[in-house]
Design brief:
Blueprint lengths: L5 E4 L4 H11 L3 H9 L5 H8 L15 H14 L2 E5 L4 H16 L3 E5 L3 H4 L5 H10 L4 E5 L6 H9 L3 E5 L13 E3 L17 H18 L4 H4 L6 H10 L6 H15 L4 H9 L10 H18 L3 H8 L3 H36 L6 E4 L8 H12 L3 E6 L4 E7 L6 H6 L7 E4 L3 E7 L3 H18 L5 E4 L1 E3 L6 H10 L11 E6 L6 E3 L5 E8 L2 E7 L13 E12 L2 E13 L2
Parallel strand pairs: 1-12, 2-3, 2-4, 4-5, 5-6, 7-8, 13-14, 17-19
Antiparallel strand pairs: 8-9, 9-11, 10-11, 14-18, 15-16, 16-17, 18-19
Length: about 575
């Protein structure tokens, strides 16, 4: 039986909305939505609507960034060997490419290392560090999107003569290494670092490169004036969207201008992966294009093979080589989808059988592919709206997996209260990687349930669905879409508005499609106007739909064969009464 969310009207201040509408000369709907999202000051609101690159703050305001930049500059002056350690997700891959490009531009001797997931584990593991040092002994090591909690590995590198810089955004879960240059607003921050704590690592790397350019300009290096900093926003945008960090403040500026870069990218590898996703070059992509069509392709190799492939693709200046890698990544992504679909189906049966009356989900199957269980955890969390941990066997005695958390709860805090049962853990409030002895899984399952239940008694995890406005079929037009475009990019922290359509019915039988037959297309009509829509992963609700119902939707632009249109995206329904 369908369990509808609690539909709530937009909660806005009418006086403040009218004030914004009159002073900024914006439409009533835009003013109401902005008011509901906390905007009251016209100047601040105008900065949001007209976000510009000139609004980016001085990179040296980020803690330790100047120290990191000065040490990188010293390495360039001395001709030192620099080892970069990235991670195998989009944020780690793009951070590595950004830094490699910048240092090589200035003549740096740079070598990069991405962990081989199934042999070397996650992040700055001992195995990947030893592999790197077996090749050559660097004088400077940079860990990107990893390393904050890798105290033993950092001490190991320092004992061999390397200075270590960590540029990362993960939460601190253990004592920091000595003499570490840590650029991490979530690890060495304070109140003054709050604005920077929302960055993904690629955003922090972008700020470091900006700082390096400023320093080299001060030193009279003309090459710093010619470096295309804006052109790096294609990769920063991919990482910002993939890591689901809030699209507010500087992140919003990154993505707004990065989406424009992605429409006609200068980077050969970016063009190759965009072409593989068959994105229309006649319009800038939107954030959902990246999260559903580009980022999964980049992630695919790290999940089931070797994550150096996308790094090589983005670094390549050979269109033929970049295209070949992009095709390989697309094929890997199809295989990843097949594996993930099978595991998700099996895991869903386990949830419905064993976790219906629980507030959390902890699943273990020794046969599940460790490369995709993070995606599975995310899908289960979204479907059942419960914190979810999915584990597989790493070796005989150890389990490894990923957790995903509902908005309103902090997964890192929850795991910290169960840390006595864990071997390793770390991540973000909404996502984390986890390792533990297989023998501890059942005890962890019970302890995690207790902690989640306690947290839910203090924090009410919202099941409300905010309806931005009730509209008719005839109101879905280009004027409304122009208003939405002014509020983009949408994402975490700036969610896409949801609209309500009253008492609608399908004009014809919905068409089920896709691998596993999980999605359906639909059409609704009102008078002479017809709208088409899609429901992703919602085929299960078709048997419960009444003849007429209220429909909650998002509005997405479509472009096909040069024609522009508007597509409804199914969010929820409820009976008309």
């Amino acid at each position: 039986m369908h369990n509808s969310l609690n539909w709530k009207p937009l909660n806005f201040d009418g006086g403040k909305a009218l004030h914004l509408q009159r002073l900024l000369r914006i439409p009533e709907f835009s003013a109401r939505l902005l008011s509901a999202r906390g905007f009251a000051d016209p100047t601040h609101t105008r900065r949001f609507l007209d976000a510009r690159l000139s609004q980016l703050e001085d990179p040296f305001r980020i803690g330790n960034l100047r120290a990191a930049v000065e040490r990188i500059q010293l390495a360039l002056e001395r001709g030192e060997t620099v080892a970069l350690f990235g991670d195998y997700d989009v944020d780690g891959i793009t951070s590595t490419v950004l830094m490699v490009n910048a240092l090589r531009y200035f003549g740096g001797q740079v070598f990069y290392h991405i962990p081989r997931r199934f042999e070397e584990g996650y992040g700055l593991s001992q195995a990947v560090v030893e592999r790197a040092f077996a090749t050559c002994t660097p004088q400077l090591a940079l860990a990107l999107d990893c390393g904050t909690n890798s105290t033993a590995q950092i001490e190991w590198m320092r004992a061999r003569g390397a200075t270590v810089i960590v540029i990362d955004h993960h939460r601190v879960t253990c004592p920091l290494a000595n003499d570490l240059i840590l650029v991490n607003p979530n690890g060495n921050g304070g109140e003054d670092q709050r604005n920077f704590g929302i960055f993904c690592t690629a955003g922090l790397v972008f700020k470091c490169i900006h700082g390096l350019l400023k320093l080299r300009r001060e030193l009279g290096d003309g090459r710093a004036l010619e470096f295309d900093l804006k052109g790096q926003l294609d990769l920063v945008t991919l990482a910002t969207v993939a890591d689901v960090v809030p699209l507010v403040g500087e992140n919003r500026i990154f993505v707004k201008y990065g989406l424009k870069e992605l429409q006609h990218p200068c980077r050969v590898g970016t063009r190759a992966i965009m072409d593989q996703a068959q994105l229309d070059r006649d319009r800038p992509p939107v954030a959902t294009d990246l999260s559903f069509r580009i980022c999964p392709r980049i992630n695919a190799s790290g999940r089931i093979a070797d994550a150096t492939l996308p790094v090589e693709m983005f670094l390549s200046e050979d269109p033929v080589r970049a295209e070949a890698i992009a095709k390989t990544l697309s094929a890997m992504n199809l295989e990843r989808q097949r594996i993930e679909s099978e595991i998700t189906e099996e895991a869903s049966r386990m949830v419905e059988r064993d976790f219906a009356d629980r507030n959390s989900i902890v699943l273990f199957n020794k046969e599940w592919h460790t490369g995709v269980i993070g995606i599975v955890a995310g899908k289960l969390m979204q479907r059942y709206r419960k914190p979810c941990v999915v584990l597989s066997r790493e070796d005989k005695d150890m389990a490894k997996g990923s957790g995903r958390c509902v908005s309103g709860l902090n997964l890192v805090d929850l795991l910290s209260k169960c840390s006595h049962l864990l071997g390793s853990w770390g991540g973000h409030p909404l996502a984390a990687g986890i390792g533990m002895p297989v023998a501890n899984i059942e005890r962890f399952r019970e302890a995690f349930e207790v902690r989640v239940t306690e947290a839910l008694q203090i924090i009410d995890v919202a099941r409300d669905l905010e309806i931005a406005a009730w509209i008719g079929v005839g109101d879905v037009n280009e004027f409304l879409m122009r208003q939405l475009r002014q509020l983009e990019p949408f994402g975490q922290g700036n969610p896409q508005p949801i609209f309500g359509l009253r008492s609608v019915s399908f004009a014809c039988e919905p068409s089920i499609f896709g691998s596993g037959r999980l999605h359906f297309n639909f059409t609704i009509a009102e008078g002479s106007r017809t709208l088409h829509g899609v429901a992703w992963h919602r085929v299960d609700i078709l048997p419960t739909l009444p003849r007429r119902f209220d429909l909650a939707v998002k509005l997405n632009p479509t472009h096909w064969n040069g024609n522009r249109g508007i597509q409804l995206e199914f969010v929820d329904f409820r009976p008309c009464d």
